[in-house]
Automatic annotation (TrEMBL):
Protein name: Polyamine aminopropyltransferase
Organism: Dialister micraerophilus UPII 345-E
Gene Ontology molecular function terms on file: spermidine synthase activity
Organism ancestry: Bacteria, Bacillati, Bacillota, Negativicutes, Veillonellales
Function, in words: Catalyzes the irreversible transfer of a propylamine group from the amino donor S-adenosylmethioninamine (decarboxy-AdoMet) to putrescine (1,4-diaminobutane) to yield spermidine.
List of residues binding spermidine: 64, 88, 159-162
């Protein structure tokens, strides 16, 4: 195997996910992270941050539809939304399909993620490229941004990278307390929370941190092909809404490729070994 034609994300010293590439289109170091864009044989163009696969043109909807539509549909009338991270624009695109939305703020720490996505991933970054009037981009630290807000947002989406580097502080109790303060009544936060198979300890620790701050914390799952072991977890938290059992009062945007009404419920059904890991800290892997 010619190593120049392959790229690997190493989950740990024993596990990696390797893709064959046609061409490396971009390879640069920003003040915050190492950014790469590669053209792959299987998933088309892919964005890589600090060696971690983030999104690709052929399967990005698996992640973006789930991190947005599950909480959006659980909320009775989501008007003001904040995305922390999400500089690729995929979550923003899905949020802005909902007619209830009046304001969408994105706070991305690394402006190069936004610029690179606009250039190399225009279908994902569609709403940013088209300068949707409901959307405002803030380049800066999401942790500092949230500290200044009180009783304002209906939904905060933490669409960040792994809990290392720029994303590390977004997985802490202190941040969740600030995010809670920034929500108004019926407010929800949702966060990508890593693989419930190969990152079980991380998922358990995030669950403990969220349950220390919020009354209702629910875990849901989605299959994301370029993420470790394909199975990915998300957590949705609120003091006022039981997201798992929320009554859905309106139709979701169409068409969808992953999300549907049945998945709104079934995504919260967890295998027993994942329950053991998340709720009790008993790890299978």
């Amino acid at each position: 195997m010619n190593e120049k034609n392959w790229i690997t994300e190493y989950v740990d010293k024993n596990l990696g996910f390797t893709l064959k590439i046609k061409e490396m289109l971009l390879d640069e170091q920003t003040p915050y992270q190492h950014i790469q864009v590669a053209e792959t044989e299987r998933y088309g163009r892919i964005l890589i941050l600090d060696g971690v696969f983030q999104t690709s043109v052929k399967e990005e909807w698996t992640y973006h539809e789930m991190i947005t539509n599950i909480p959006m549909m659980a909320h009775p009338n989501p008007e003001r939304i904040l995305i922390i991270g999400g500089g690729d624009g995929g979550a923003a695109r899905e949020i802005l399909r909902h007619e209830t939305v009046k304001q969408l703020d994105i706070c991305e720490i690394d402006k190069r993620v936004v610029e690179v996505s606009q250039k190399y991933f225009p279908t994902i970054s569609k709403e940013i490229n088209e300068k949707n009037g409901k959307l405002k981009m803030h380049i800066g630290d999401g942790i500092a941004f949230v500290k200044e807000i009180e009783n304002f947002y209906d939904l905060i989406i933490i669409d960040c990278s792994d809990p290392i580097g720029p994303g590390e502080g977004l997985f802490t109790r202190n941040f969740y307390k600030d995010a809670k303060k920034a929500l108004r009544k019926n407010g929800i936060i949702v966060q990508q929370t890593e693989s419930p198979i190969v990152q079980q300890k991380t998922v358990h620790e995030v669950y403990k941190a969220m349950t220390d701050v919020f009354t209702n914390v629910n875990v849901f799952l989605a299959y994301v092909p370029i993420y470790p072991e394909c199975l990915h977890s998300f957590m949705a938290a609120s003091d006022d809404i039981d997201i798992r059992n929320a009554k859905i009062t309106r139709k979701h945007p169409t068409p969808m490729k992953y999300y549907n009404e049945e998945i709104q419920k079934s995504a919260f059904v967890l295998p027993e070994f994942i329950k053991e890991a998340i709720y009790k800290g008993k790890y299978t892997f």
